[in-house]
TrEMBL record:
Residues 117-126 have a biased composition (Polar residues). This is Motile sperm domain-containing protein 1. Residues 17-113 form the MSP domain. Keywords: Endoplasmic reticulum, Golgi apparatus, Membrane, Transmembrane, Transmembrane helix.
Amino acid sequence: MQQQHRQPELVEGSLPVFVFPTDLVFYADDQTSHKQVLTLYNPYEFALKFKVLCTAPNKYTVVDATGAVKPQCCVDIVIRHRDVRACHYGVYDKFRLQVSEQSQRKALGRKEVTATLRPSASQETPSPRPHDDERRIKEQFAESEFFEQTAFQTESRPVAGGPSLLTVLLGLVCMAALMLPTLGEQESTVPVYLHLSVNKKLVAAYVLGLLTMVILRT
């Protein structure tokens, strides 16, 4: 009798998460560095869904802050620095990638990635990060609060201000044209040169109908 292999139930936060790179460095004088790419790998036999959180979401734009990764596949997450100012030089922010199974809501694993803005790449010497510096960063983020990172900032739509003055005036002209007597009417106190033909009134009625539709949509 064959035994059925069951996948062991994963404990929340115990699933290893594979992300590259683990450090993002943006350079103020190099616009090409303002866009970085994080690659999330899924070496498992089941699909994963992910969410990107950040300690400073207002400084970054994340393309596809939430999504899914198929089994044994990977996905690229584009991160753009959109607040390149001198006051942010040397400040360490952090991204947290949370993953879970598509059928579950609890986070099975998480991985944190540091991000920093520096003035220029030419001013740096390639050297490993000092141990004291690493310890300071870990202490800084030990109790950090992460916020949901939206993919794109929602564009605010201008509030509709109603129909334009030109639309209103044109509508009044069409209404006045329809109220004028038709060409050929004898009993009218209106001068003859203000009498309109049937075709002209039909045009005025058609234009008035179009203006009404425009006004209702605004």
